[in-house]
Amino acid sequence: MSNTSRPEDFDAYWQQVCGELEATPIAPEEEHLPIRSTEFCECYTVRFTGIGPYRLFGYLSIPHGDGPFPTLLLGPAYRSVVDPLPQGDANEKRGRFVVFSTAGRGQRNADKPYAGVFPGMMTEGIDSPETSIFRGFAADWLRAVDYLLTRPEVDRSRFAAIKQEGMPILTAALRPEVTHVVASP
Asked: How far apart are the first and last CA of the chain?
């Protein structure tokens, strides 16, 4: 029988994760990526720091023109590779929205010192909430929000977290700056 009740330390657990993020400098490094830039946006690779400390990776697309722009966070998914936009998505989206597509710890370009094994990565450290890879993975979503909030191009009234899983819901619960959520099972 599974235990679906809320643990007594639930709030304290997530407060500790958020506290660790607050104590960790984001330390962003951005590099222009001409090959991914288009006639309607500029693209950059971004390296930034999550808890651990752990260096993370993302593709940032900023539309040409005057911002701020609506923002789409395409946070880490449970797979090994991250694209500037999901395969098959309309590339022109990057001309209307700031788009930040990120890799979490263990994924390509964020795989040092730890390279995740797929499938199976999410079971690593599962015996303890403090060592579970899920803890770091969730914190990576939060840190992506923190990074975006440093950008003047981001319209804070139109900030969406998007993914085909539940992480955007958790992210919005812990980062009220996220104004819109798109998640599916």
From this structure: 22
98: which strand partners?
Answer: 71
Q: Is pLDDT of 3 > 80?
A: no
Give the C-alpha separation, 46 to 43, whole Å.
10
Residue 162 lies in a domain: yes
Domain contains 11: no
CATH code (residue 175) = 3.40.50.1820
Helix (H) or strand (E) holding 47, with range, is: strand 41-50
Q: What is the pLDDT of residues 34-93, one digit of tens each?
A: 999 999 999 999 999 999 999 999 999 999 999 999 999 998 776 666 666 665 677 788
In a domain, 17, yes or no: no
Q: How many domains are contained in the chain?
A: 1
Taking the C-alpha atoms of residue 75 and residue 9, their distance in angstroms, rounded to an integer, is 26
- Token pair recorded at residue 39: 């006639």
What token pair was written down for 43?
Answer: 């693209």
Q: What is the DSSP string of 107-171?
A: STTS-SS-B--TTTGGGTTTT-TTT-HHHHHHHHHHHHHHHHTT-TTEEEEEEEEEESSSHHHHH
Structural domain contains residue 140: yes
Quote the domain boundaries for residue 93.
27-183
- Tell me what the pLDDT averaged over the chain comes to: 88
